[in-house]
Design a protein that fits this description.
Immunoglobulin-like; Neuraminidase; about 0% helix; mainly beta; 4-stranded antiparallel β-sheet; about 575 residues; 35 strands
């Protein structure tokens, strides 16, 4: 079936988009790129009305984004570097992780301490072990906890017996850095209790509860796959000890065992206020393929009844991404074929859709189309979306979109909770390469999006990893500077008292303030010059006048010298 075939196609090597013979005039000296390049409203998110019958908007300026920065260092462009993921620490350090050449079996990481202007030489993450000749390590994902520890997960073929043994394990591994990505520990097996005939585990994604440090890794699980029925599950593995060990995996779907129902392609997110864990995934329990959401309210030990995210149930919805914003609203994005009368034949007419839940994932508002109208070309598809949440009500969606013989990476933005979206904008300044693919997005310390992707602009039919952001004036802590940090308050949620822990790396003027959602100062907790050390401050849920404030989401912001850090506080009376 489609599921296992696509999994293997995506994971057993660098992405190779299919060859296509477009109907447009291929004798022309150039093929115009799709419009909407770096749309002038992209950064400010001007709202537009959808016109599904029209082509993409006209090209605009590139001024909203930084120039593309190549992340990997590959003289001669002799190997593939592909499948990047991105995360940003509290200090503003940008981390990008990717698979660095499947023949060398490496998961690589580079970091930037200057807002993405330059990146460090790559560091190998995975242990040096023996791998089978034709298989390697794939699809890394990255997350950072409340103490700026960096975690990377990936799926791994080290236990694969040989190239013909289809019952050998494919495992999920995790590694951790406690020094900002400079050095890494020993790989830890995350996909435990693999007892099936086909113990295959693919496509890991990682979420971290920054309050208690719990780590959640979701993945496609083929332990119950059988040749007569392509059955996949989605499972979550949890670590409560900083990634040293993992509990037995837990299935997230609520369907009865069936050889004909497939769950796969998951994404995981953690509500940093409540600690609830959300997993979105593809599911074939209905008449087509749908997007479902599973929620755990007990720190990933079990999952509640699943909710269907999409309303349309007659077509195919695929490749979900999930994120939770600071207000606890859940957003899911996915690839949707509802407007395509024949998804198996050109012209392809798929789009990216987003839906929001304000009820902890129990119900979702009607989905909204993100992508602008597709081009007038025989071969056009969008694939696959990834989400990030910025300021309250603001979400960013990235994807890559193939038109004729080229593929481009796009970003779109909503500032009203996913009700409307701005104009699609290409994120890279190179439009000559045949293939730009697999973009990922994260939010930096200024609540702006930073993005990574892979493309072939350097030739030799090889991928390289690139980066861009939206603001060249990003200020972060230099790698050699003393570390200032702001811990998550405890308890959180709280009523009415909570404690905030913070560390000052050198003598500095420190200001610690509580703000409301409108950005107004509610209470100043600290405003003094202190020596280097660890400190705590308490808040009793009152404002400067001593009046108790209402329940809601507040923000604790620490300013130490030129460094600004922020944490979300949730008061529940």
């Amino acid at each position: 079936m489609f599921g296992i075939t696509f999994v293997l196609a995506l994971t057993l090597g660098a992405l190779r988009l299919p060859a296509v013979t477009p109907s447009l005039d291929t004798t022309a000296s150039t093929i115009s790129p799709p419009a909407g390049l770096r749309a002038s409203g992209a950064r400010d998110g001007g709202q537009v009305t959808r016109d599904l019958s029209s082509p993409r908007p006209a090209p605009a300026d590139f001024s909203s984004f930084l120039p593309d920065i190549q992340v990997n260092l590959d003289p001669g462009n002799l190997v593939d570097d592909f499948g990047p993921a991105i995360a940003v620490s509290q200090r503003g350090v940008i981390y990008i992780v990717w698979t660095g050449d499947e023949t060398l079996k490496r998961i690589l990481l580079a970091r930037s301490v200057d807002g993405g202007v330059t990146f460090s030489p790559a560091v190998r993450i995975n242990d040096v072990v023996a791998y089978p000749p034709s298989y390697s390590v794939y699809q890394p994902d990255i997350a950072i906890d409340g103490n700026d520890n960096v975690y990377v997960v990936w799926h791994d073929y080290r236990a694969w017996a040989d190239d013909n043994s289809w019952m050998s394990p494919i495992d999920i591994y995790l590694d951790k850095s406690t020094d900002g990505g400079l050095t890494w520990g020993t790989d830890v097996l995350a996909s435990t209790n693999s007892a099936g005939a086909y113990p295959w585990h693919f496509q890991p994604y990682i979420g971290i509860d920054k309050t208690n440090g719990n780590i959640y890794v979701s993945f496609t699980d083929y332990d119950r796959y059988y040749p007569e029925g392509d059955h996949g599950d989605v499972s979550v593995a949890r670590s409560t000890d900083g990634g040293a060990t993992f509990d037995a995996k837990v299935r997230v779907d609520d369907t009865a065992d069936s050889l004909l129902v497939v769950q796969e392609f998951s994404s995981v997110a953690v509500d940093q206020s409540s600690g609830d864990v959300y997993v979105a995934f593809e599911d074939t329990r209905g008449s087509g393929k749908d997007i479902y959401l599973a929620r755990s309210t007990d720190n990933g030990q079990s999952f509640l009844s699943n909710s269907r995210v999409n309303v349309d149930t007659t077509s195919v919805q695929e490749q979900p991404s999930v994120v939770v914003d600071d207000a606890g609203h859940v957003y899911a994005a996915w690839l949707d074929w509802r407007n395509d009368p024949d998804p198996l034949s050109a012209p392809y007419q798929d789009h990216i859709y987003v839906a929001r839940s304000t009820s902890a994932g129990v119900t979702f508002a009607p989905s909204v189309q993100v992508t602008d109208a597709y081009m007038n070309a025989d071969y056009s598809y969008d694939f696959p979306p990834r989400l990030a949440a910025g300021d309250p009500g603001e979400i960013h969606v990235v994807w890559f979109d193939r038109h004729a013989d080229k593929a481009f990476c796009y970003r779109d933005r909503s500032t009203d909770g996913g009700q409307t979206f701005s104009v699609d904008a290409i994120i890279h300044d190179n439009i000559d390469s045949l293939t730009h693919a697999l973009p990922r997005v994260a939010i930096d310390g200024h609540h702006d999006p930073v993005m990574t992707w892979m493309d072939r602009r350097n030739g030799n039919d090889r991928y390289d990893v690139f980066f861009t952001g939206v603001d060249a004036a990003t200020a972060v802590v230099d790698a050699g500077s003393p570390i200032h940090s702001l811990g998550q308050n405890y308890p959180n949620p709280f009523n009415p008292h909570t404690t905030v822990r913070y560390t000052v790396g050198e003598d500095a003027r420190v200001r610690l303030r509580v703000y409301n959602g409108a950005g107004h100062v509610v209470r100043t907790l600290v405003d003094e010059t202190v020596t280097a050390g660890d400190y705590t401050a308490s808040w009793d849920g009152r404002d400067e006048r001593g009046v108790s404030v209402a329940s809601g989401v507040y923000f604790c912001r620490m300013q130490a010298g030129s460094v600004s850090l922020e944490r979300k506080l949730v008061l529940i009376r």
